[in-house]
Amino acid sequence: MQVGSEAHKELYCRAFLEGHRKYEPEDLPWPDLQGDDLKLIQGIPFWDHALQAEADAGPMVKACAEVATDPLIREALALQGYEEERHGRTIQHMIDRYEIEINEIHVEMPPNVEEAFIDFGFEECLDSFGAFGLFELARRSQLVPRELFEIFDQVMQEEAHHIVFFINWFAHRQINRGLVAGATVGPKAAWHYAKALSKLGGIFFGGDSDEGEDFVVTGAAAFVDNLTPSLVLETSLTENERRLAGFDRDLLRPNFVPRVARTMLPVLKLLPFG
Ligand SMILES: [Fe+2]
Ligand SMILES: [Fe+2]
Questions:
Q1: 85: CA distance to ligand 1 center in Å?
Q2: Ligand nearest to the CA of 120
Q3: Cα Rg for the chain, rounded, in angstroms?
Q4: In terms of residue numbers, what domain contains 80?
Q5: Rounded to whole angstroms, what are the CA distances from 140 to 27, 38, 42, 144, 232?
Q6: What is the C-alpha separation between 184 and 142, in angstroms, rounded?
Q7: Which residue has the higher pLDDT, 201 or 190?
Q8: Residue 163: nearest ligand to its CA?
Q9: What tens digit of pLDDT does each residue of 107-152 get?
Q10: Are the CB atoms for 155 and 180 separated by under 8 Å?
Q11: How far is the CA of 94 from the centre of ligand 2 (A)?
Q12: Residue 81 C-alpha to ligand 1 middle, in angstroms?
């Protein structure tokens, strides 16, 4: 399979369109939570950040679909926009159902939607890698009702579909614009990953004013004892492989972040906090 070819485009678009599942957030089997279970969910500090990210993504990806010239790519992008919007509605439904207090969110449309989608795609590749691991660690802790994990497991798997679609869309686009041959390892991709990483660093270490606070770590630490960077990295690597295993072998997979993680892991283990 030639990356960038018409056949490649058909494959990554069809794989994405065929992976779609129909459901409405309010029809999902939400458990009744009481007492400590309810307090734990209400106390997780990242729901407004999660809602903001999904609420921003839905309209932006849909707008990106509208400017796509290829009908099949347009259909796939529109579907991703719909799924992001549904993620937002899923989180909103949970917030309402469990009376979780959050800060108000504001959605703004970026001036250049295609550029915004590229930034967003690389951020999703980076964030999903860590989220897959943290989600698994939280699941193992058994502190949260299994039914909730099953609901969000579906969201996680949709994110896996998004990142595989994105990395193939990006490579196809770069090649067809004559920008680069080995798109995913090209300097452009590395630059985008660096940008995504600096944003994530802001979120982790509170350098980024309003979304500051170490919400990811605080959130995860609510579930997991002895949370170490190497445990997160190791679990993320395993989970990343598991979640991406079912995709067609001819599709590209986001491999930059796992490769960096695999390199870092032995070094991290030598450190006192690792
Ligand atoms: Fe999403
Ligand atoms: Fe997504």
A1: 7
A2: 2
A3: 19
A4: 6-270
A5: 26, 18, 20, 9, 13
A6: 37
A7: 190
A8: 2
A9: 999 999 999 999 999 999 999 999 999 899 988 888 888 899 999 9
A10: no
A11: 18
A12: 9
pLDDT in tens, 142-192: 888 889 999 999 999 999 999 999 999 999 999 998 766 554 446 667 778
Look at residue 161 and tell me if it is in a domain. Answer: yes
Please give the model's pTM, rounded to 2 decimal places: 0.89
Q: Which ligand lies nearest to the CA atom of residue 86 in the structure?
A: 1
pLDDT 10s digits, 67-117: 999 999 999 999 999 999 999 999 999 999 999 999 999 999 999 999 999
The Cα–Cα gap between 234 and 40 comes to: 26
Q: Which ligand is nearest to the CA of 121?
A: 2
Residue 1 resides in a domain: no
What is the number of the ligand closest to the CA of 128?
2
Count of domains observed in the chain: 1
CA of residue 186 to ligand 2 center, whole Å = 23
Q: Is residue 100 part of a domain?
A: yes
**Residue at 201 is within a domain:** yes
Q: pLDDT tens-digit profile of 222-236?
A: 667 777 888 889 999
Domain at 233, CATH number = 1.20.1260
Average pLDDT of span 57-75: 97
| pLDDT given for residue 195 in this prediction | 76
